[in-house]
């Protein structure tokens, strides 16, 4: 069953490739417990089927980069991009699109957290394995307050402009 508004995010681990060493975090891939990351924060999360794919690279991620300041002004503490890719791929994609820390590029390499959300997308027949459905959500202290799930391969409700209008 898929997550819905009012639900608490399931426990899971996401990995982020860090370009710069930080307090308690080394250069390279670092694993983070979702429950620790969301504690006391309002987070805009959007998920894409895959890094470097056309809609994801040309519209979805760039839209959140363009609306970064406006989302922050509406009380969003962090913006996350989640994909079923490894942390090295997510880090490279972030560098390619010049994310520069405005969006956290969160890897769910084995789709474990995506499956816990009930938002996996089976693309095995197309040679792409299990991926994430395209969606966006607002999470406040771990609780989903908004959720925009795309139908099929669409891109019409999970964009940054739609989220911004609803905040």
Automatic annotation (TrEMBL):
Reactions catalysed according to its record? a hydroperoxide + 2 glutathione = an alcohol + glutathione disulfide + H2O
Q: Which domain of life is it from?
A: Bacteria
**Pfam families in alphabetical order:** Redoxin
Name the PROSITE patterns for this protein: THIOREDOXIN_2
What keywords were assigned to this record?
Antioxidant, Oxidoreductase, Peroxidase, Redox-active center
Q: Cross-referenced Gene3D superfamilies, in alphabetical order?
A: Glutaredoxin
Keyword check for Ribosomal protein, yes or no: no
Task: Please state the Enzyme Commission number of this protein.
Answer: 1.11.1.27
Q: Does the keyword Oxidoreductase feature in the UniProt annotation? A: yes
User: How would you classify this enzyme at the top EC level?
Assistant: oxidoreductase
Q: What does this protein do?
A: Thiol-specific peroxidase that catalyzes the reduction of hydrogen peroxide and organic hydroperoxides to water and alcohols, respectively. Plays a role in cell protection against oxidative stress by detoxifying peroxides.
- Which protein family is named in the record? Belongs to the peroxiredoxin family. Prx5 subfamily.
List the protein's name.
Answer: Glutathione-dependent peroxiredoxin
* The species this protein was found in: Mesopusillimonas faecipullorum
Q: What is the lineage of its organism?
A: Bacteria, Pseudomonadati, Pseudomonadota, Betaproteobacteria, Burkholderiales
């Amino acid at each position: 069953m898929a997550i819905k508004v009012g639900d608490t995010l399931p426990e899971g681990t996401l990995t982020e490739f860090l370009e710069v060493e930080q307090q308690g975090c080394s250069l390279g891939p670092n694993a983070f417990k979702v429950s620790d990351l969301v504690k006391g924060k309002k987070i805009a999360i959007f998920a894409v089927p895959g890094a470097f794919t056309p809609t994801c690279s040309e519209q979805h991620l760039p839209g959140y980069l363009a609306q970064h300041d406006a989302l922050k002004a509406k009380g969003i503490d962090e913006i996350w991009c989640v994909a079923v890719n490894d942390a090295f791929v997510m880090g490279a994609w972030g560098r390619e699109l010049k994310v520069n820390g405005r969006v956290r590029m969160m890897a769910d390499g084995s789709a474990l957290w995506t499956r816990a959300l009930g938002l996996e997308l089976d693309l095995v027949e197309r040679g792409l394995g299990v991926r994430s459905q395209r969606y966006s959500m607002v999470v406040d202290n771990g609780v989903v307050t908004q959720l925009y799930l795309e139908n099929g391969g669409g891109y019409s409700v999970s964009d940054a402009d739609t989220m911004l209008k609803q905040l």
